[in-house]
Design a protein that fits this description.
The protein is of the alpha+beta class. The chain has two helices and four strands. It has helices at residues 48-56, 59-70; strands at residues 3-5, 14-16, 43-45, 79-81. It is extended and about 50 Å long.
Length: 101
């Protein structure tokens, strides 16, 4: 297992070599002969704030972020979710279907 740390002390995604935990090690076993749920993929949220910030970056930085999310060398995400209406990561408050009352 690799552990990376970002902290106020100045670590920016710095690999931590001597990570210790008081919790017991968790072991996940996969039984390929038993199927209870189907894994569709992995992903993240794509919010208005993240779209705004990515748009403020240069083309090369945007490309690096997209590769970090979707490439096999990165997180290899295959799914993204977004919000309907405004959310806590929106630049303003809005609704596509306002209801009076």
């Amino acid at each position: 297992m690799k552990v990376f740390e970002t902290s106020r002390e100045g670590n920016l995604l710095t690999e931590v070599s001597d990570f210790e935990t008081s919790e017991p090690t968790t072991i996940i076993s996969i039984d390929r002969n038993t199927s209870k749920q189907t894994l569709v993929g992995f992903g993240a949220a794509f919010t208005e704030a993240s779209a705004y910030l990515m748009n403020e970056l240069g083309t090369e930085n945007r490309r690096e972020i997209i590769e970090a999310y979707f490439s096999e060398q990165g997180s290899n995400y295959s799914l993204m979710r977004t919000h309907m209406n405004s959310c806590d990561f929106s630049l303003t408050n809005y609704s596509y279907s306002p209801v009076e009352g």
